[in-house]
Amino acid sequence: MLILGDVLARHGISQATLAREMHLSPAAVSLLVRHNQYPRTIRRRDLRSMACAVLTKLRVPIEELTDLFLESESPPVGETEKLPALPAKATGPRSNAAPSGNPTPLERCIEMLLRKQTLSDAARRKFGIFRDPFEDPTEAREVYLSRDIRYVREALWQVAAGNTKFLALIGESGSGKSTLREDLEERLRLENRPVRLIQPYVLAMEDSDRKGQYLRSDHIAEAILHAVASGESPRRSPEARFRQVHEALIASSRIGVQHLLVIEEAHGLPIPTLKHLKRFLELKDGMRRLLSVLLIGQPELRDKLDERRASVREVAQRCQIVSLPPLDANLGEYLAHRFTAAGLDLAAVVEPAAIDALMQALTIRQRTGAGPNEIAVISLTHPLVANNLLTAAINQAATLGAPRVTAELVRAVREQMP
Predict the structure, then answer these.
(1) Which of 1, 6, 2, 3 has the alpha carbon at shortest distance from 81?
(2) CATH 1.10.8 is the classification of domain 121-136+327-416
(3) Cα(343)–Cα(88) distance, integer angstroms
(4) Could you count the other beta carbons within 10 Å of the beta carbon of residue 113?
């Protein structure tokens, strides 16, 4: 049985539910889960992508989707039997070898989480690459700005300036959210703007104590005090502490300072803390609001801010949401910009046709219904994913002695990945 079966059982998801969501027959899903037999009508890579998309929709944590299609070490269980809940990341890395002893590649099913690729020494020597074009930008001019990214960048600027009070930036893993947050910090520094950034540490933040550290409103209060009045110790009682926060914000605001609370990985915020953000937003000095809030997170954050959820309706109605889309047609321009920033010529390393092949390789089609035309096109042309795939192709080109990365090489490398 596949680990997929363990995950279904652990979360109380029946094979029939998975089959219905993937538009497959229950028998096909049963053969896949119990005997590792894939349907012949769908490519394995596409089926794995569909399964991961469905399980994500059904709120299975991302960290449990890594090894779905490896053989399970547990005996088969009934569909409705639940396994004990495991803490996040409690299991160590699994062996790439199948139970039979024949080695199999680690099948990572989420394209968004392609394993980090690094340029080999052979690739660096062959193509004269001294600075990796895919490393994180170190200055503002290295940040690629398409029309969509410029819009998101300006939205972040407006919330920092206090013109927008509550903003949520949502994007897939690897879409460039953190890069834009760093760009905002750099821009504020270069323009010498009186904006105080308040950034609570979220190293182990999860939305429940069972999964990790629960970020509470008093943690946010402590972060505000540390940023605005670092010489003060937080008072013990909650009433006195929040009064202290209010007074510190008033004092700072009256000397012309704007305050921006930035919470990364905000999809891990618990619902009670999301609700409490409204109270922070309501802190005023007369008619002037003292604090703006920027949430940065993955698409699960959009679900938490759904107005149909009565528990967060008041917060969701006050929050402007901006999304960071895939690069799509801007992929070639993005790559050219990154290579130029590293002192390289993209055309000397990658053929133009390979860029088109890269975009095609990062576009998947998923059936949404039984009809022949009920197909959704999903683009995965986010910077991190594109960087990883092209890096792997450059390494392969160096291994084969190819003068440049070709479209055929990109397709071949993509087929070897999940």
Answers:
(1) 6
(2) yes
(3) 41
(4) 20
Express as a percent the part of the chain with pLDDT over 90: 59
Helix (H, G, I), strand (E, B) or coil at 233: coil
For the question of whether the overall pTM of this predicted structure is more than 0.70, the answer is yes
Average pLDDT over residues 393-415: 94
Q: Which value, in Å, is the radius of gyration of the alpha carbons in the chain?
A: 24
Q: Given this model, what pLDDT does residue 397 score?
A: 96
Alpha-carbon gap, residue 368 to 247, rounded angstroms: 54
What is the rounded average pLDDT of the residues 351-362?
Answer: 95
How far is it, in rounded angstroms, from Cα 312 to Cα 323? 20
The architecture in CATH of the region 147-323 reads 3-Layer(aba) Sandwich (3.40)
DSSP class of residue 413 equals H
Residues 141-164: pLDDT tens digits?
999 999 999 999 999 999 999 999
Residues paired with 296 in a beta bridge: 169
pLDDT, position 104: 32
Amino acid at 194: P
Domain boundaries, given as residue ranges, for the chain: 3-109, 121-136+327-416, 147-323
In angstroms, rounded to a whole number, what is the distance separating the alpha carbons of residues 381 and 366? 16
Tokens coding 404? 């440049």
Task: Residue 164: name the closest of 172, 152, 156, 153 by CA.
Answer: 156
User: Over the stretch 258-278, which tens digit does the pLDDT of each residue have?
Assistant: 999 999 999 989 999 999 999
> What CATH number matches the domain at 3-109, 2.60.120, 1.10.260, 3.40.50, 3.30.310?
1.10.260
pLDDT category, 177, cuts 50, 70, 90?
very high
Phi-psi region of 401 (alpha: psi -120 to 50; beta: other; left: phi over 0): left
Q: Contact, 245 vs 255, CB < 8 A?
A: no
Nearest to 136 by CA among 178, 100, 94: 178
- Name the residue among 274, 326, 262 with its Cα closest to residue 301: 274
Query: Rounded distance, CA 283 to CA 300, Å?
Result: 28
Measured CA to CA in angstroms, residue 380 lies from 102, 359, 360 at distances of 32, 8, 10
